[in-house]
Amino acid sequence: MTGECIDHKENPGLRVEPNFIDEREEQDTMLKLGTCQVDKHELAKELREVIRKYGFCFEAEMVHMQLMDAKGSTQDIGQNRSQRATGRPESRDDQVGIVAPWGYGADLDTAQLPKMVRKIVQRLTEKGYRLGPLRDCTINHRTGSFFMIHPHVDPLTDGPHVFVLGILSGAVLTFTPDGVAGRRGVEVEQKSWTDDDLDVLIRRRSIAAFTGDARYHWRHGIRAGMELKAPELGAHPVVCDFWGSMKYILPRKEERFSLVLAFADA
């Protein structure tokens, strides 16, 4: 099943709201007024500064990337160094992540969140979502059009209600049944992890909400993507993903932030 906006009545526990923020709120620009520059302080700029201060990536997470052509020949293109900032204490092997000042779980202090993030939390409440206290705020930053996330279930201690807001680029978030052995390698890019996967098209500035079965009984991830060259995509090859089938292609931008917010029950 695919679609830009999934109705929560037909699909309990899974919903997408397009244009949750507007273009002005997303932009990362400077306005020039005479000889002065006025910082517009929109979301992309704010998240970029948070990643600069608190972003980290464990060595084990630096995915080695290869480009494969239609004939099966591969070309090494280095490691992906995606970063995240979170108030959740994390460690991997002998590495310890940076803990952002807003904290985690019952100790999360919303007053310490970035200004625009606080506005987004407030907007969710104003839209009528029945939510308890915020328990997790994680900011992910990915570049090079490499947005891949291995299928996973978020930590159970985060909370039962998860929201993912994507900016600067759209993405296809794929839900795959938990406990099912899926495909690997190139087959994933051609057919997805399983035949029962659910592709959710999340256009730029849209927010996905999932709870219940979608939160606990399905894993979610993003495929690595395919580099395509076609006149309608411009002069240069573009990394794309598909949603539902190879007939429906989503071109990616170079960079993407995703803001993950998780709440307790009301």
Automatic annotation (TrEMBL):
Sequence ranges of Polar residues compositional bias: 72-85
Chain intervals for the UniProt region annotation (Disordered): 72-95
InterPro entries: AlkB-like_sf, ALKBH4
Protein's recorded name: Fe2OG dioxygenase domain-containing protein
